[in-house]
Amino acid sequence: MDDETVGRPGSGDTSSVAGVGRADIHLHTNLGDGWISPARLVQIATDRQLAVIAVTDHDHVEGARRVEELLARRDSPVQMITGVEVSTRQGHLLGLFVERAPRPLRPVEESIDAIKEQGGLVVVPHPLGTLVPSLSRRKIDALLTAGYEIDGIEIYNPSPANASRRDAVRAANEEWGLAEIGASDAHFWQHVGAGYTRFAGSTPDDLRRAILDRTGRAGGQEHRPARLNPAAYVAQCAWSWFVDPPRRMIRRHRASRSEHQVRRG
């Protein structure tokens, strides 16, 4: 499956290879630190003919639940994976096929275990990055040496967090042998599908199999992602720094209180 065989994201084209699906499994909504409403995300993913998406807001699955509800109501052909981007002490981590978000700000080892206990898959987003909290090569080496199961790694992520380290990540993965993941890390609707994973089939189960079998391929690098006004990025960063963190704290407090009430009951 060569890059040229897959239509440009957002152009309305689909893969010219029969039986090949495109999945964007790193997406953020405005229930997290993104600027994409769940309804807009459903619309864009449908228009861009993505087979599978995963909503991966930071440390909660509320955005994923909302998008899932809207997809069902719209009867969209897009299928969804519940995901989460976990804030660990050593960097961010994606959990796919999860039911709940692991507690944040724990060692990455505990976060991997929490994802695996749910039957989820572990993907390293924007590896080796310096602009956002990311796992270093030394840490990934140590995790693999210690036997922690990492399923995939973002080979292509069009965000600035990944661009400068892309060649180093590809070289490192020749040793690691992890599943190749392409994903947009979209915080704006214009970037949905700008990075994607190509896989045989069209369903979440097909994608899961491709990740486990290491048969998927990262796509998107053949086209430059949409450029936005710099003011949009500044505004989104402010949202990420000043609006989303307090909401996460409120969510954690509510979850902790609910757990305490369950234990008392």
Structure report:
The protein has a single domain (3-228), classed as Metal-dependent hydrolases (TIM Barrel, Alpha-Beta Barrel). It is 38% helix and 18% strand. The protein contains eight helices and nine strands. The protein has helices at residues 38-47, 62-74, 108-117, 137-145, 160-163, 166-176, 204-213, 230-264, and strands at 20-27, 52-55, 79-87, 92-96, 121-124, 152-156, 179-182, 196-200, 217-219. The chain is globular, with a radius of gyration of 17 Å. The model is unreliable at 1-16 (pLDDT under 50).
In short:
The chain is of the alpha/beta class and 265 residues long. It is built from eight helices and nine strands.
- In total, the number of domains comes to 1
**Class computed from helices, strands and strand pairing:** alpha/beta
Strand arrangement within the widest β-sheet reads 7-6-5-4-3-2-1-8-9
Order of helices and strands: EHEHEEHEHEHHEEHEH
CATH overall fold name = TIM Barrel
Computed over alpha carbons, the radius of gyration is 17 Å
Q: Count the helices. How many?
A: 8
Low-confidence stretches: 1-16
CATH architecture: Alpha-Beta Barrel
Q: Span between N and C termini? A: 55 Å
The total beta strand count reads: 9
- Percent helix, as a range, is 25-40%
Tell me the layout of helices and strands:
Layout: E1 20-27, H1 38-47, E2 52-55, H2 62-74, E3 79-87, E4 92-96, H3 108-117, E5 121-124, H4 137-145, E6 152-156, H5 160-163, H6 166-176, E7 179-182, E8 196-200, H7 204-213, E9 217-219, H8 230-264
Helix pairs in contact: 1-2
